[in-house]
Write a structure and sequence with these properties.
266 residues; alpha+beta; D-Maltodextrin-Binding Protein, domain 2; Alpha-Beta Plaits; five-stranded mixed β-sheet; four-stranded antiparallel β-sheet
Length: 266
């Protein structure tokens, strides 16, 4: 759904895992991968967090998708028939309160659509799925509850990944640049590494750490508002180089309009 909204008219191809989606783009079997990275309720998607630094792909866009979960059941099923519910590891927490109120036993699956397919194949009226209205149409299930998610703001951020970078013009509008860096083993290294962004007026939209085998936060994933070819950004990266190493740019891409809405814009 996110891919079709972000790239109207595209032909979507399903992959069995995030790893397989990365591989499909690397090998040329697909032009883009649409990968979820964060949700306003369930947090970051852990598998993707670890795939991004080693995926050998570039971020060329982002998309924010409001998530409308549906509770699905077999044709003719009612809520009173359900005892179990199946869905993805992120969809279950997004609907936890409603699941508990209905007295359902949750079961984790690789994805929401796959859960809907299994419910259709299992043909047991005691089993339902949390998935999209699109999945209900594909697998011939009834929608028993619309808007099952606990929070109205439930939104997932997706990244569009490509084999090659697509560098936009610095003056093309609000931009996000994603990079990864390792900090040097010196006191207050992170504080000093990020100082250049502050002194040059650059905002950080996201900062995440990766721990090493000693549980030290040695590597950081960073979304910066701006273009790396502008003077303030170049100065910030120059200062970053004094306190960090192995700075890797993952892409520069247009900021989705959802960011302006979240900041209080129209």
């Amino acid at each position: 759904m996110a891919a079709q909204e972000a790239v109207p008219g595209c032909i979507t191809t399903a992959c069995p895992s995030f790893d397989a989606a990365f591989a499909a783009v690397r090998t040329g079997d697909a032009d883009l991968a649409t990968i979820p990275v964060d949700n306003t309720v369930a947090g970051r998607v852990a598998d993707v967090h670890h795939l991004m630094p080693q995926g050998d792909l570039y971020i060329v866009g982002e998309w924010f998708l409001p998530v409308q979960h549906c509770l699905l059941g077999l044709k003719g099923t009612t809520l009173k028939d359900l005892r179990h519910v199946h869905s993805h590891a992120h969809a279950i927490p997004q609907c936890r309160k409603r699941i508990n109120s209905l007295g359902l036993v949750p079961h984790i699956h690789a994805d929401t659509a796959g859960a809907a397919r299994q419910v259709a194949q299992q043909a047991d009226p005691a089993h339902g799925a949390i998935a999209s209205a699109l999945a209900a149409r594909i697998y011939g299930l009834d929608i028993l509850v619309e808007g099952l998610q606990d929070a109205a703001h439930n939104t997932t951020r997706f990244l569009m990944l490509s084999r090659e970078p697509d560098m936009p013009d610095p003056d093309s509008g609000p931009l996000i640049t994603t990079l990864i860096f390792e900090i040097r083993n010196i006191p207050a290294a992170l504080y000093k590494a990020l100082g250049g962004f502050a002194t040059n007026g650059l905002s950080l939209a996201k900062l995440e750490s990766y721990v090493d085998e000693n549980f030290q936060a040695a590597r950081f994933y960073c979304d910066v508002e701006g273009h790396p070819e502008t003077p303030p950004f170049r100065r910030a990266i120059e200062e970053l180089g004094f306190f960090a190493r192995d700075v890797t740019f993952l892409g520069t891409y247009p900021a989705h309009p959802f960011r302006q809405k979240g900041a209080g814009g129209a």
